Amino acid sequence: MILSTKQKRIFTLAVLLSSGESVSANTIIKNADCSGATLTRALRDLRDVYNTTIKYSKSSHSYQMTDAGNLTHVEIALMQRSLSKSEMLSVDENVSLTKVRKKAVSISLSKATISKLDSLANEKNVSRSDIIEMLINSL
C-alpha cells in the first residue's frame, strides 16, 4: 500500500503521540517532514478523524495525546506497519521527469502486419509504437 504524504504525516503523528508522553514539536516536525503550519493542520486532522485529545504545552513546546479517542493499539500497529512498508517502497521508487520527444507519423500496413504487431505488443505488454521502435533499434 502506497501512502499519500498526508497519510504518512498523520500516521507518523499517531505513532509518535500514541505513547501518551510529551513529544517536542521539533521532533514531530523532523519525523513528519513538515512545517509548523502543516503540523497544526495534521494535528487538527488527527483530532477530527480519530476523535483524539492532544494537548499543547507552551513552556516545553511539545504535544501530548491525553485521550486516544478511536485509536486502538491494533490501529497504531497497522499504522507502523504501513509506514515501514511505505518507506521500503519509496526507497526503490524512481521517477523520471524527462519525456522522450516523439512525433506522430502515419504508415500503411496490412491487417496481417498490424495483427502481428498487436500480438507482440500484448506479449511484451507495450504499445505498437514501442514494438516498432524496438524493431528499428535492433537493425
Give the arrangement of secondary structure elements.
Layout: H1 5-17, E1 23-24, H2 25-32, H3 36-50, E2 53-57, E3 62-67, H4 73-92, H5 111-124, H6 128-137
How would you describe what is shown here?
The chain is mostly helical. It folds into two domains: 5-92, Arc Repressor Mutant, subunit A, CATH 1.10.10.10; 102-139, Arc Repressor Mutant, CATH 1.10.1220. The protein has six helices and three strands. It has helices spanning 5-17, 25-32, 36-50, 73-92, 111-124, 128-137; strands spanning 23-24, 53-57, 62-67. A hairpin with a 4-residue loop joins strand 2 (53-57) and strand 3 (62-67). Helix 1 packs across helix 3 and helix 1 (5-17) packs across helix 4. The protein starts with a helix and ends with a helix.
Q: What is the CATH domain class of the largest domain?
A: Mainly Alpha
Give the CATH H-level superfamily of the largest domain.
Winged helix-like DNA-binding domain superfamily/Winged helix DNA-binding domain
Number of domain units: 2
Report, as a whole number of angstroms, the end-to-end distance: 42 Å
Q: What is the count of helical runs?
A: 6
Q: Architecture of the largest domain, CATH level 2?
A: Orthogonal Bundle
Identify the strand order in the major beta sheet.
Answer: 1-3-2
From the helix content, strand content and strand pairing, which structural class follows?
mainly alpha
Mean pLDDT: 85
The biggest beta sheet reads: 3 strands, antiparallel
Q: What share of the residues does DSSP label as strand, in percent?
A: 5-15%
Helix content: 55-70%
| Subunit arrangement of the protein | single chain
Instruction: Flag low-confidence runs.
Output: none
Order of helices and strands: HEHHEEHHH
Q: Predict the CATH topology of the largest domain.
A: Arc Repressor Mutant, subunit A
Radius of gyration over all CA atoms, rounded: 25 Å
- Total number of strands: 3
Shape: elongated
